[in-house]
Specification:
Layout lengths: L17 H9 L12 H4 L5 H12 L5 H6 L4 E3 L6 H12 L7 E3 L6 H14 L5 E3 L6 H14 L6 E3 L5 E2 L4 E2 L2 H7 L7 E3 L6 H14 L5 E3 L6 H14 L5 E3 L6 H14 L5 E3 L7 H11 L7 E3 L7 H13 L7 E4 L6 H13 L4 E4 L16 H11 L4 H8 L6 E3 H10 L7 H11 L6 E3 L1
Parallel strand pairs: 1-2, 2-3, 3-4, 4-7, 7-8, 8-9, 9-10, 10-11, 11-12, 12-13
Antiparallel strand pairs: 5-6, 14-15
Amino acid sequence: DQDEETSNTSESPESVSLADASAEKATQGSDTDLEVEDPEKAFVGITGTELYLEACRLMEVVPVSHFIQNLAKPYINLNHHGLGPKGVKAIAIALVSNATVTHLELEDNCILAEGAICIAEMLRENSSLQELNISNNHLDTAGAEAIASLLLDNMSYLHTLQLSGGLWLQLAGRSHCLCTFVSLQGNYQVKELDLSHNEFYEKGGQLLGQMLASNTTLEILDLSWNHLRRQGTVALGTGLRSNSALKILNLSWNGVGNEGALALGEALKVNTVLVHLDISNNQINNEGAKKLCRGLEVNGKLKILKMANNPLTTEGATALVTSVRKNPKSMMEEINISNVLVNETFIKLLDLVCQTHPELDVIYGEVEGCIAKIPKQHPNPMKVIQNYLKEHNLRLWDFFRNTDKDGNMKIPVAAFQRAMMQQSSIPLDRVQIGELVRKLDRNRTGVVDY
């Protein structure tokens, strides 16, 4: 235990802990360790820069000028800096009592287990850091367990944690951080978690399902590229049935298949919080889409469904749109099936559905036969609006203000699209309104900021 050890002048730099290093500087060489119960006492009179330089001297690493220059700012990006475990240990020492930095990026620095343990120790003392990225850092079992223990004990103020990659050992072929899932069951701090690219396989999906069933805080979870496959997704679906917090879930590139789609559909029948589901690139065909639709036909919360690059045809696309038509409670705003080649019958169905669900935007591929035909020309929607305003002696500001119910100069895309579909003064069809939305929200933020 570091709190019970006494520092020794013969110790190598590698053995100097966070507490030892900070205490040595604070007490100017005394034999007293930094007591965890009273960390502030050891830092009296020492600035962050001075402490960091001293830590670098003890670790025998070159100080990072970018870190020093930004130590008094809320955001520090040290991604791809080649810090290694000793370099990140020096940074951790400097951040123990820092009250300024709230967002720290440390991706791809090969910090290994030693560095992860130091970060976890620092987070138990630091009360300002809220967002942390330690992706792709080869944390190994000990490092993953240190982070898991931190989460289980609810000893940090983190609400966003990125652990993409780096929890998977290529030689072993399995993830080290299965314990992290269990630790999240009782965590009430972390709201956003990125665990993508970690090769969790079915076992990871099963443990994640258990976590989701009991976690009441996590709102955003990225599990893309984890080989969860059928069994893992079925377990996740079971967890989602009783989850009351998760709003955004990314399951793309996981080999979900039709059985996984069925499990998610069953979960959507009873889940009342999930608003965004990404199941792109998951080998879900028309049969799987129809199974998913069983949930979409009754779900009254999901707004965004991403299913691009699944082997769907017009049959699957029709099933998805029909599920919205059948559901009077549907809140669906976007269905992304951008690789699907549809036909004129589908377009007519979509036009019909959009009359009762004007906020719906379906992103599909090409329309069969349109290549041979002369495409229908649509007037520029902005020019149509400008002509209308000119004829009625109105300003563009007035046009937006009438749609902006909150008066904050920002209109949610769904609300804007709904208003445009429902108004009858300006002659715009669904295609023109879609083009208008894409122009006004080029970065796809979901908001029209006028």
